[in-house]
Every structure is written in C-alpha cells, then in structure tokens.
Amino acid sequence: MQSLEKFQKSTREWLQANCPESMRTAMVAEEVVWGGRNASFKNPDSKLWLERMAARGWTCPTWPAEYGGGGLNKEEAIILNQELRRINARVALTSFGISMLGPVLLESGSVDQIMEHIPKIVAGEIRWCQGYSEPGSGSDLASLSTRAELHGDTYTINGSKVWTSYADQADWIFCLVRTDFDVPKHAGISFILFDMASPGISTKPIQLISGGSPFCETFFDDVKVPERNLVGRLNEGWSIAKRLLQHERTMISSFGLSSGQSDRGGTTSMLASIERAAMHYRGDTDRLSDAVLRDRIAQFKIDSAAFAYTSQRSIEESKQGQGPNATSSMLKNYGCELNKRRYELLMQALGSQGLGWEGDGFDSDELQVTRQWLRSKANSIEGGTSEIQLNIIAKRVLGLPDIMSAGKAQGSK
Amino acid sequence: MALVLNEDQQLLKDSAQSFCQQLAPVSLLRRLRDSKDETGFDRDVWKQMVDLGWAGMAIPEAYGGYGFGYGGLGVVLEETGRTLVSSPLISTVLLAATAINELGSEEQKQELLPKIVAGELLVALALDENSSHAPSRIGTKAEKSGDGFILSGAKTFVLDGHVAQKLIVVARSSGEIDSRQGLSLFLVDAGLEGIAISRTHMVDCRNAAKIEFSQVEVAADALLGEVDAGFDGLDKVLDIARIGLAAEMLGSIQEVFERILDFLKTREQFGILIGSFQGLQHRAATMYSEIELCKSVVRAALAGLDDSGKSRQDIAELASIAKAKLSEVFFEVSNEGIQMHGGIGMTDEFDIGFFLKRARVAQHFLGDASFHRDRYASLNNF
Ligand SMILES: Cc1cc2nc3c(=O)[nH]c(=O)nc-3n(C[C@H](O)[C@H](O)[C@H](O)COP(=O)(O)OP(=O)(O)OC[C@H]3O[C@@H](n4cnc5c(N)ncnc54)[C@H](O)[C@@H]3O)c2cc1C
Description:
- The complex is a heterodimer.
- By secondary structure, chain A is an alpha+beta fold.
- Helix content of chain A is 42%, strand content 13%.
- Chain A has helices spanning 2-18, 44-55, 74-86, 96-108, 111-123, 237-253, 274-282, 291-317, 327-350, 364-376, 386-397, 405-409; strands spanning 128-131, 147-151, 154-165, 172-178, 189-195, 201-206, 215-226, 230-231.
- The longest helix of chain A is centred in the last third of the chain and has 27 residues, at 291-317.
- Chain B folds into 3 domains: 7-121, Butyryl-Coa Dehydrogenase, subunit A, domain 1 (Orthogonal Bundle), CATH 1.10.540; 125-224, Butyryl-CoA Dehydrogenase, subunit A, domain 2 (Beta Barrel), CATH 2.40.110.10; 231-379, Butyryl-CoA Dehydrogenase, subunit A, domain 3 (Up-down Bundle), CATH 1.20.140.10.
- Chain B is built from 11 helices and 10 strands.
C-alpha cells in the first residue's frame, strides 16, 4: 500500500513537471501522434511529450522495462492512468503497435523479434498497420488467400489486402498469410511481419463516407520476406491472429468511454456534454426543452456510466498480466454501439448546425461532428462486426451450440 | 472503488445462496400464494434469516447490528432475488431500519434498531399516495394539535403494511402538495385509533396495503427527524433502498437468464438445439452484455453507499443510474424469459412467470426507469 502511495506521489510530481500545458487540453484530430519514420508533429509539444513519456516507457506502461516498457504492475498502471486523467493529459502515442501487435509479440514472438520491434513501438519509431481483411475474407477472415511460399530462407508473398488502415503511412505490416492450402482453413494460416518499404508492395487509398481516406487497398506482388519474420510456428498463425483481435477489441471498446478519444473515438469537445450542446443550440437555460431528447440523453448517460463501471470492473477482475479474454467482445460491441448513439444524439443536439459538410456557416467543431458522426458508423464494423461479436459471446461466453462448426471443418477455398 | 466482491462478501454470498436455494426456493412463494397465506411470508424462514444476521447486516454495531455495510446487505438481497424470497427484508430492513438509522434520534435508534435486528419488530414505510412514485407529492396532513399531531389522509402500496407493528408515515405538516418543504415523518403504532389497513393482493404475490388515516392522534415523540424538513433525509433513505432493490433485481435477472440459457441448451426443434439459432443467440448475447452492465452498476452503487467519501449528489446519481438500468434490463430479460420458453413459459406451473410478475412490481417500486431518467437529468442540471 505504502509503495503505491509513493508511486502516486512521484507520478503526480513527474507529470506536473513534464506534461506540457498544451498537452493538457482536449485532443484535436490533427494532433494525434502516430509516430513512425515519417512522423510529423503539428504541435511541437506533442514531440516533447512523446519523448518524455517514451523515455520512461510510459507509452506502454505494463510492458517489461527490459524492452523499453514501463514495467508497471496492474495497480501502478491504474494509478498512472488516473493521474493522467486527473490533469486531462493527452495520449502521448497512439498506435497499432501498442494496442495490437506489441501484446501478442510479447506473448508469442521470439526474443530476437521482441528485441527488434518492441523498443521501437514504445518509442513511436515504427508505425504498424494490420493486414488481415481481404476482398473475399472479411468476417470469415480465416478464408483468406494471400499466399506465402518459402524458397530457401525467404518467403515470397502474393495477394491483396483491403481496408488496411493507414497502409500508405505505415512502416511495417503484421500480416496474415496462407502457408498451406490443403488443410482446413484455420490450420493453414501464418502470422508474419514485414517492412512496407519492401519492393512489390503498393497501396491505394479508399475514401470513406466521412470524406477521409484512412484506409487502403494493399497489393503484394512477389514481396520477399525473411523466414525469421514469421511469428510463432508455421501454420499456427490463427491463434495469434485471434489473440490480437481481443487486444484490438479491448482498444476499440474504449470509444464507448467518454475519455476514450482517439482518431477513431472522436475528439470534439462537444462530446463531453451533449446535454449542454443541446441546450445551447435551443437557447435553453436550466432545463432541456425537448423532453424526448432529454430522456434519451439521460438514458445514454446512464448506459455510459454503466459501461464505464464495467470496463473498470473488467480491469479489476483480470489477473495480473493476463490481458483481455472473450469478454473483450462484449466490451467492444457495447462500446461501439454507445459511441454510435453518442454521435446520433449529438447530431440531434446540433440540429441544422450539425448538417454542414464544409465551408462557411459552420464552425470547425460543428464540421467535425458531422464527419465524426459518419466515421462512427465504422465502429461496429472494424475489428470484427457487431454481429460477429455477438456470435463470439454466444459461443465462447455463453456456451451456446456452434452451428457453423460443421462448415469450419471443411477446407478453405 | 472496488467493483469486485471482497472475501467476506463472497463468503456471505455463498451462504446466502445455499440458504435461499434450500430453504426459500421459488416453490415457497408459490405455496404462500396457493394457500392464500395471511402473512404473505413464511415466519419460520424469516426467523432463520434473522438468525443468520440478515436483519442487522447494515445496522451499526452500536445498535445491535453487524456493521457489514450495504455491500453485505446487497449480496444477501441479490441471492434472495434469485429465488424471489418474500420477506420483510425490503420493508423493514432496507426501508424502515434505514430510515430510523438515518433520521431517528439516539433514543429511537436505541429502542427500535435492536428489535429489528432481533426480528421482533416489523415496520413499514407509508409513502406513496398515487399510482406512481412521487415522494414529494404528499397530501396526507399532519396538523399540530397541542404537543402532538393529527394525521389524516390515505396511503397506497405500503409494503408489508398489513403485518407491520409500526408505520413510518410521510405527511405534510406545511406547504403545497408537491413541495419538498413541509414534509414530516412520523413513527406510529399500526394499531392506533383511526388507522384502517386493508391488505392488497399484488401480482408478484408479495404484500402491500392501502392505509387510511382518519384523525389519528400522535404524540410529539412520534416525529422521526425534524418537523417540516423531512424530504432530504427521506430522499437519502429512498436512494439507499433503491440501490438495495436494484441488488435484489440483479439476482432475479441473473436467475431468469440462467434459466433461459439452460433451456436454449436442452430444447430441440428442427432436429437441433434451439440455442443454435442465431436469432436467439444474438438476443442472448445482448442480454448477457446488459446484465454485465447491471452487475457493475449495482457493485458501484453498493460500494458508493459504504464509501464515506461519496457526496449526497454521488449517491443520488448512483441510485438513479442503478434503478433506471436495472428496471429496463429486468423488463427485457423477464419478457425474453417467457418468449424464449415458448408455450411452457406461459404456464402457471412453470416458474418463469413469477419472475415476470416480480419484474413489473420491482420496476415500478421506488420509481421506474422514466422516473429515474428524469431525476438523473435534473440532478445533472439539464
Ligand atoms: C474504418 C475501417 C477500418 C478498418 N481497418 C482495418 C485494418 O486496418 N486492417 C484490416 O485487416 N481490416 C480492417 N477493416 C476491415 C474490417 O475488419 C472488416 O470490414 C470487417 O471484419 C467486416 O468484413 P467485411 O467488410 O468483409 O463485411 P462482411 O463480412 O461481408 O459482412 C457483411 C455483413 O454480414 C454480416 N455477417 C457476416 N458474417 C456473419 C455471421 N456469421 N453471422 C451474422 N452476420 C454476419 C456482418 O456482420 C455484416 O453486417 C477496417 C474496416 C473499417 C470499416
């Protein structure tokens, strides 16, 4: 107990001295720090903040200190998080390396792979993207057909991925490839890492309904990858892939928390209080005049509070170092649906001021709401759709019969 | 805030569970109903619950209680909710004892709380006057007369009102109806002249009464708390009871859900288990998610009651969050309980209907979901 109190005290002091003032304000979308070889920092304080946090390993607080992580235990990590929230500190580094690849690499990677990649993830030196989905393989991910063939000690990769978020800006990719076509579909998949600068890789951005182009089609044409970049054992990539999805879903579930703001979760300050926004646009002073909207906002806030307690409880219940489990599907699904509700209510609160697309007549917050409302629709698709999460809950958590297991036994296409 | 049970609470929960499963299963409620039992609960079972210390769980040790806190009472209520135990736990322990503990004078506490802990005294709260919960809409009058007061008016939905030896009556000593000012609470013997109590048979087989007060003379020492200034204290008592009730509802909800899951895993149609159908799987998965939220909310609210650092506003919000959320989910889950069982779910012989009936009453009692959403909005100034 005593040492935790000490930790809290020293953490508070350190943050007080080292978190720049401008990093204690609500995040704005253009200033989210993703790191990488081509990282750009719109606000110079962002760079300073990243460097200071990374030097302590606090971009990845619970990862082992020997690989550059913070080496904190669960209790300390909770305290760090509380202290960060207390001063409204921005997330110093957002990356798929932190939320997806790192945790599984620490679990399943070789020592060499860990030594090579983990410190660079902590420091934000390398930006990763996720090569899972393919044109023919979305929810049925295990049917994927991008192939990797071994010649000597080098794999040759051919095929294509789609919806690859930030493929055009990422330095490396963690990728699912088929290494055996003659076995049931789940049994012929491998998990491999490679440099996006390798010859034979091309990307083509796809525009979203929100106007942005955060994801790409990604093509592999005889891409050469050293054999040592395979994570885990040959043809056993599916279990790593699923484990990574649990981490991804836990991360996505944080969009349901009002504090869970990233580029995917939303950054506008109006999110903090939909009811204030609604009253402001209606000219109401002490009570929201639209009784139906008032009731819906109250219901939303009650569900949000209940969800926040549930996220907190799942952290308290998880054993030290065990990471997420099948309940990550529940958190992902609920958090995403909440975030979608949040934006629908915000749109209702803003009325016609939420309906602008660009140009004059709308301030930047209002325009951001419109775009992020559209972007939020992806929350229940990315990382596995809501329907897939409900399937997983039904089967893995509730133990209901799996009607598809018959199909699973058949070979892939 | 700890959202997981501590070791003591877990032990208490386990023992409460085995007690309820063995000595107070749903069949007990059915028997009370079928025999048109006068009391409406089983006095022997209640005696054993008292022997286990359940009546004194949250009462301070200074008044004969066990100081287990509301966290302790909450886990007991969760287990009694699983088997729909009908007992004075809500009326006397959760509502009346809390009111006495929160509002009573030292003398009142010394006199009454040990008797409640010992199971010797049943007390009911006579609050509502209309068909919807509105704790400040009080028309029952308390007129000053000499040193004492004269009560006149009518109360409805008084839980255990027909068996209670004492009543806590919320009355208006001044001010307009609906005003929060001018409310006073009185602790009176149920047998006083001018009190007419008629039992009402409720759909959930628990007991309530309608009570009329015609020119009932009460002494000055019957006052519980300050004259005219009763609302704030009452509101706090109600919040504590709302949270306790939410804990009971959580137990019932989990029980219904487990019964649904069992059925999905055993009933076959079209040659396969009905739990294979995605239409049902997704509804089950959705219920599971909502129930996980309910658990968190109830734990947070109970922990909040035992945390002296929480403000009155915090507790009020937690109570409304808990009661609104649990009311909605109990409604959903109890309805799915019928639907997913098909025809058998509609039969009286099958227990699931008892849960639907209890759900309706529990949803309504101490404010339904829309009452608490409205209250939550007001608490948050919108
Ligand atoms: C913004 C965004 C970013 C993304 N980023 C990445 C990324 O970085 N890397 C990456 O690999 N992928 C990424 N994805 C892809 C995402 O993982 C897939 O879109 C998702 O898994 C769904 O696959 P699909 O699009 O092929 O839809 P489909 O699988 O074709 O689904 C269509 C509909 O059918 C339903 N459905 C399918 N199967 C079932 C079933 N068994 N039961 C019930 N319903 C079912 C789905 O729920 C959905 O409603 C991203 C997607 C979006 C929208």
